[in-house]
TrEMBL record:
GO terms for biological process: cell adhesion involved in single-species biofilm formation; negative regulation of bacterial-type flagellum-dependent cell motility. It is an enzyme of class 2 (transferase). The keyword Transmembrane helix applies. Residues 252-384 form the GGDEF domain. It comes from the Bacteria. This is diguanylate cyclase. The lineage of its organism: Bacteria, Pseudomonadati, Pseudomonadota, Alphaproteobacteria, Hyphomicrobiales. Its EC number is 2.7.7.65. It catalyses: 2 GTP = 3',3'-c-di-GMP + 2 diphosphate. GO terms for cellular component: plasma membrane. Signal peptide: none annotated. Keywords: Membrane, Transmembrane, Transmembrane helix. The chain crosses the membrane at residues 6-25, 37-55, 61-79, 91-110, 122-140, 152-174, 186-211. NCBIfam families: GGDEF.
Length: 399
């Protein structure tokens, strides 16, 4: 077997491995749609390499030459479709099908042209260039691209440009006097080697990007409360640490609001946990509708919630809490008894020049206890300084 033949065999194996890897990725719902398109692309790529391998042993190579091209250019189109799905864009079917519609009959038309013709080589390679540039264009249109996305776009562009280089290499080294002789040429070794390197690079980069999205979704799920859609305690504390670093230097205004549903245990006892869940969901919706993009809201306990308000002073935070309190007290809970009118209490604390985020949390916690002690369904603002723990007041307010 020639060197090019070995590289073709390696390319078949590599395409098969990538098809298997993306098939595994397709088992994750987050990336299942793009991964399925890419699996189909790599399977067609395997078939294309197989057809190219058979050219050397065919008496009349015309069928296998066309089959190899048709399978490979369609594989590129399917990969681009997967890219579009991965980046949440409409698949550019008009563009992809247009390239296929022109390139397939063109490939048949140039078969009988002299194999030494540079025009023939350009016409053969140009559809591949177009397909790769469509992929680079899809990535370039991604919203908020990250370094990996930019790297993938560059790789696709480089992969596209190599197809414009191949005609020059074909003229310099020759492609053989007939299709069956191609596999024994030095050009075949160069062409297959370049293709193998770029297939591996693009495939690995795309696989890493899909796995990145899978891990990101897993992280979101692990930090999200399933009932309310807000951050759970873990997610809230993680975001709070990030906020604390941003607030440390320079000292920016910030406030925190801690909320607790009043007499929630009695709601569960009287109406059942299903109604209790509806109450929690209704309150969480009030929070979700009130917060802006830079606010951090979470369910940090069974019926306890917290909101960090970067850039908001204590007076504005109190107005924020009063708005939620009054809206929740007046809202009817869908699916709950009409006589159920739950309320909530709020503690507000503003970050001072001398305390930390932890200090602010403790003072807001104490202010919440004061709201409970004052009769509930009200808002209290913490004093600038606080000393002491909150365990005792938690015991007093429970129930």
């Amino acid at each position: 077997m020639s060197q090019a033949g070995y590289i073709l065999a390696i390319n078949i194996l590599v395409a098969g491995l990538f098809a298997s890897a993306f098939a595994w990725a397709a088992t994750y719902e987050k990336v299942s749609r793009p991964a399925r398109w890419i699996v189909a692309g790599f399977l067609l790529g395997m078939a294309s390499f197989g057809a190219e391998w058979l050219i050397a042993v065919a008496d009349d190579a015309r069928f296998f030459v066309f089959a190899s091209f048709a399978l490979s250019i369609t594989a590129f189109a399917l990969f681009d479709a997967g890219l579009a799905r991965a980046y949440r864009q409409p698949i550019p079917w008009t563009l992809l099908l247009g390239i296929l519609a022109v390139s397939l009959p063109l490939n048949l038309a140039i078969y009988d042209m002299p194999r030494t013709s540079p025009v023939r080589d350009v016409l053969y390679q140009f559809p591949y260039f177009l397909m790769q540039m469509v992929g680079a264009w899809i990535v370039a249109r991604a919203k908020s691209p990250r370094p990996l996305d930019k790297a993938l776009g560059v790789l696709l562009a480089v992969s596209g440009l190599q197809f414009l280089v191949k005609p020059y290499l074909a003229v310099a080294f020759g492609t053989g006097d007939r299709p069956q002789a191609y596999v024994d040429t030095f050009y075949a070794v160069l062409s297959q080697s370049m293709g193998a390197v770029l297939i591996v690079a693009v495939g690995l980069m795309m696989l890493v990007i899909l796995l990145r999205d899978v891990l990101a979704e897993a992280t979101v799920r692990s930090e999200t409360d399933p009932l309310t859609g807000l951050l759970n305690r873990r997610g809230f504390e993680q975001r709070a640490r990030t906020i604390a670093q941003r607030l440390a230097t320079p000292k920016l205004p910030a406030s925190i609001v801690i909320c607790d549903l009043d007499h929630f245990k009695s709601v569960n006892d009287r109406f059942g946990h299903a109604v209790g869940d509806k109450v929690i969901s209704a309150f969480a919706k009030q929070l979700h509708d009130a917060v802006s993009e830079n606010h951090i809201a979470g369910r940090i306990g069974g019926e306890e919630f917290a909101v960090i308000l970067p850039g908001v002073d204590g007076a504005s935070a109190r107005l924020f809490a009063e708005g939620i309190r009054s809206a929740f007290a007046a809202a009817a809970i869908e699916g709950a008894p009409t006589d159920l009118r739950p309320t909530a209490s709020f503690g507000v604390a503003e970050l001072t020049r001398t305390d930390t985020l932890s200090d602010m949390l403790r003072r807001a916690d104490l202010a919440l206890y004061e709201a409970k002690d004052a009769g509930r369904d009200c808002v209290r603002v913490a004093r600038p300084y606080f000393s002491g723990g909150s365990e005792e007041r938690r015991a007093l307010r429970d129930g």
